[in-house]
Amino acid sequence: MEISLRNQIAIVTGASSGIGTGIAKSLASAGATVIVNHSSERSTDDAKAVVKEITDAGGKGITYQCDVSKEDQVVKMFQDVVAEFGTVDILVNNAGIQKDAKFTEMTLDQWNAVIGVNLTGQFLCAREAIKEFLRRGIDPSRSVACGKIIHISSVHEVIPWAGHANYAASKGAIRMLMQTLAQEYGADKIRVNSICPGAIQTPINTNAWSTQEAMNSLLTLIPYNRIGQPQDIGNLAVFLASDASDYITGASIFIDGGMTTFESFSTGG
Ligand code: NAD
């Protein structure tokens, strides 16, 4: 089975770091032209380094600064990408943050910041992407689908997470956003799915893997006994963006080394 994303334009949000970088590199190596979105001036160098890696490997990509929680910036990003590349075929809604606090001490700012990026950001980008997919229609030289959206959710779409109520609420909500869009636009041949990662080694969760003690504790939650890498998620994103997965829509796919089998029940329960 050949998987190719040739002639397709992909926007990956929050691609200057971690999982987004892994996905951007994987989509580019499958032939897509990748828009490496980053949120602020501060992440410009990181985004440029990702594009350099992509182009050094023979792929195509550009950086694009846009805060996905801001409607005007998201609308402009899609307008600019369509003006430069003609359309958008693939959206990977990856940008996400954590602002952790015990629930009774969680401020409204912490709540709003996480919902703003993790949920509203995914809503805004998905809305602009679907408008563009519908404007273009199906072009069989690109894909048998009219467009593909991949939401980056989390195992915390189903596993409650004390001390992270804002984050868990945002990921639980992504499931219903994703399934509703899959239902609403299935007849238009727009596919919408979620990737739900377990523990992936990135800057968002440094405290879970940066010491041997933390890593050992983390591994007790993972039957497959290793932490995941951004490339693991990139491989799945390529599959979900490609015609090889054409009958998959409305699905949350867990990629977690077995974390959602609840390892602690293997010796009791
Ligand atoms: P990360 O901190 O390395 O990357 C997050 C990215 O989002 C960064 O590039 C950051 O600049 C970007 N970002 C933040 N706010 C933004 C905004 N307003 N606009 C645009 N970009 C913005 O973390 P990561 O682990 O790579 O996380 C990526 C996604 O994967 C998140 O949605 C996260 O919730 C999810 N996830 C991560 C793990 C994990 O174990 N690492 C597990 C499950 C889900």
Overview of the molecule:
With 269 residues, the chain is α/β, with parallel strands linked by helices. The chain is 41% helix and 14% strand. The protein has a single domain, classed as Rossmann fold (3-Layer(aba) Sandwich). The longest helix is centred in the middle third of the chain and has 29 residues, at 108-136. The radius of gyration is 18 Å and the shape is globular. It starts with 8 loop residues before the first strand and ends in a 14-residue tail after the last strand. It is built from seven helices and seven strands. Helix 1 links the parallel strand 1 and strand 2 (33-38). Bound molecules: nicotinamide-adenine-dinucleotide. Nicotinamide-adenine-dinucleotide (NAD) binds at residues 13-14, 16-20, 37-39, 43, 67-69, 94-97, 117, 121, 152, 154, 197, 199-200, 202-205.
Largest sheet, strands/sense/barrel: 7 strands, parallel
Q: Please identify which CATH superfamily we are dealing with.
A: NAD(P)-binding Rossmann-like Domain
- Which structural class should the secondary elements be placed in? alpha/beta
| Total count of helical runs of at least 4 residues | 7
Into how many domains do the coordinates divide? Answer: 1
Tell me which ligands are bound. Answer: nicotinamide-adenine-dinucleotide
Distance between the termini: 42 Å
- CATH architectural type: 3-Layer(aba) Sandwich
How many beta-strand elements?
7
Instruction: State the shape.
Output: globular
Give the CATH topology.
Rossmann fold
- Assess the beta-strand content as a share of residues: 5-15%
What string, H for helix and E for strand, traces the elements in order? EHEHEHEHEHEHHE
CATH hierarchy, class: Alpha Beta
Percent helix range: 40-55%
Low-confidence stretches: none
Look at the structure and give the mean pLDDT: 97
Task: List the quaternary state of the chains.
Answer: single chain
